[in-house]
Amino acid sequence: MRLSKAFQPTLKEVPAEAQIASHRLMLRAGLVRQTSSGIYAWLPAGLRVLRNIEKIIREEQDAIGAQEVLMPTLQSADLWRRSGRYDAYGPEMLRIQDRHGRELLYGPTNEEMITDIFGSSVSSYKQLPKALYHIQWKFRDEVRPRFGVMRGREFLMKDAYSFDADYQGAVNSYRRMMLSYLRIFQRLGVRAVPMVADTGPIGGDLSHEFLVLAPTGESGVFFDAALEEQDWLGRPVDCDNEEDLAAFFSSVTDHYAATDEKHDEAAWAEVPDDRKREGRGIEVGHIFYFGTKYTESMGIEVSGADGAKFSPHMGSYGVGVSRLVGAIIEASHDEAGIIWPASVAPYKAAILNLRPGDEACDAICEEIYGTDSENFMYDDRSERAGVKFNDADLMGHPWQIIVGPRGAKEGKVELKRRADGERFELPVAEALAKIGAA
Amino acid sequence: MRLSKAFQPTLKEVPAEAQIASHRLMLRAGLVRQTSSGIYAWLPAGLRVLRNIEKIIREEQDAIGAQEVLMPTLQSADLWRRSGRYDAYGPEMLRIQDRHGRELLYGPTNEEMITDIFGSSVSSYKQLPKALYHIQWKFRDEVRPRFGVMRGREFLMKDAYSFDADYQGAVNSYRRMMLSYLRIFQRLGVRAVPMVADTGPIGGDLSHEFLVLAPTGESGVFFDAALEEQDWLGRPVDCDNEEDLAAFFSSVTDHYAATDEKHDEAAWAEVPDDRKREGRGIEVGHIFYFGTKYTESMGIEVSGADGAKFSPHMGSYGVGVSRLVGAIIEASHDEAGIIWPASVAPYKAAILNLRPGDEACDAICEEIYGTDSENFMYDDRSERAGVKFNDADLMGHPWQIIVGPRGAKEGKVELKRRADGERFELPVAEALAKIGAA
């Protein structure tokens, strides 16, 4: 994309209510625009980040055998009455009446709907296990929306639901999701640590929150360094093998990790000092086993091997997709702007033409841009070099390819790595190879 | 995907209210499930079709320089008061109050919002032209939803908006969109003919509907055969060249095409008899120039070359994405089921293992499946051959790869083309080549 034509309206000044870095930077860099309180429009560069995150989630959910569906945003109140949650849910639920006076709601989550769809589609234990997910806009009518997309009202979420014949099956499903989530966050380029969370009346230990480490996080976190050192992508786990899943799961849960709410000083004391990590975190995911709560309350049964009917065990698994854009920025930025991990960056590099109109500069820029115009942001504007440097830093492209008249004459460009500021003067082909290999 | 594991719940019986073929077939083939009146959940195979359509639209919109954004589903009533449409819009608008009593609505379209975003982002004629589009769920509270996804309440739509400095610029934008739409529909494998539509108080000739030809269409259509014979994908048009755009546009609008509402017997009489085509059509797109209607009413201005402020000219351009799934089926099915055009088919072929457990059959099926498991639907169920044939016909995969014990021993499979039923007995490699090349 040529920046001269791109719809990426950067802002010099941001509204005073933008208190945190990600909110300010997303507005300044032209990624989103607020359209109502807690409701945002995604501009092209922001949407590209959102799509990159979705793609990684989709690939890793598919990899463990989850299947993608797409449920609507609006649900009938009657569906929620069947589970008993319609009246129990507080004012965060957006309740709506249609033209015939029928009660609808904007879905804040989809347990009821997926259970209903499952129940009308699956009749035998032979069809289990099943895991279904969707990536859809949700609405929670926060009393005081703030922090930009981190606590908005209309937000994009990936929610998955598993259905198993028995508790052990549900445990396996849960463990597969744990693995999928660890891989997702690793690919997103953030450190997200799973921490034991409340299970409520269900009990047991099958509830984990995933927190992205960031100094501005809402929760204090305490965890064993082992949890941030592992390479989940490189670790082979046979998801159809119960023992393999169990071994993997132990390698996570054997290590201490807790938010300040659940912090246990006695257990913490047993962690070797050199492995203690403290910090703050932002919740970006939650996985949860809840047994037959919805299948029973909604009367959903399937036939077992012996012909007897039973209510399948369920779990639900959420990732805050739009929230992650903010969380990633909280975890990865500096004074000058965003520092995108390569996997989610809207463009892999900016090409900064320091002298548009100079024959050598234009030729080199066009040559580079032509190799992959879809994934470069070419700053071809007639602006001062300083403006271009600042905008590139603000937008956070992993690399800047700086093309000035002196180097251009020799066929050279300056490559700047956004993350650490390191610079390399290289011939064009070598610069492209370095970006491609990174 | 292995059909034994796939979440594709086919139905033997469909509800009586499913009156038209696409509605019945989408339910029977397990593509969608109704969750409330006029509101549908998309099951995996249906979602794949929807995504294939989106991808083609996105590529062809990007190709003419339109940029993708994503606006939220909920909008503030105040935004619509600025254009004067809030009170004018009828009961099809779903009006909502949030917990603070603020008035929201579920967007039926986005002229107001995009104009507002544009106005707060663009300040100079130098930034024009701009074309922005998004693909997002909309809601229209139809009094009597019916025909499945063809006239649902929550529906997926691609809507684009163009902003130009003057009328001639807007004409160019309009012509680019006309080209983009013709290419989109051609790639989708349907015949969609542009027909002059009402312009209302704006006047002029810049309003066209695109109708997919299908015997069950809601409108009668009359058009010159020239319009369905052209290869828009093979025709080079320089979208930056006004003369090129004008020549292309004439090649469309010089030929007669009208729905029964706008039919003109005198003009029709001038079309040579051998070029007259009559039929029925389903509206799947609409492009429309409306001048400064929204920029003026909402007070949006940019600076011109002379420093004077002016209100940009706009057009809007819609494609009914979810409706298209139904329209494609209406245009392409038979008694046995759906006949998917290859470009939108959820899977490129079904592999029918006629004897699971037979060593040769299993080996050949696994070999074929392994070459591209993402894009084959492998019917590995222990069902009778007749059930598999019927389900494959119903689901409408472009090809069926039929693997029976006799052929398997010789390394051969039977290939059936769904569209015309033609069969080919071929060695595996040749069968795969034939499918790939088709």
Automatic annotation (TrEMBL), chains A, B:
Keywords: Aminoacyl-tRNA synthetase, ATP-binding, Cytoplasm, Ligase, Nucleotide-binding, Protein biosynthesis. It comes from the Bacteria. Its EC number is 6.1.1.15. One of its GO terms (cellular component) is cytosol. Residues 33-341 form the Aminoacyl-transfer RNA synthetases class-II family profile domain. It catalyses: tRNA(Pro) + L-proline + ATP = L-prolyl-tRNA(Pro) + AMP + diphosphate. The keyword Secreted does not apply. GO terms for molecular function: ATP binding; proline-tRNA ligase activity. Homodimer. Belongs to the class-II aminoacyl-tRNA synthetase family. ProS type 2 subfamily. This is Proline--tRNA ligase. The gene is proS.
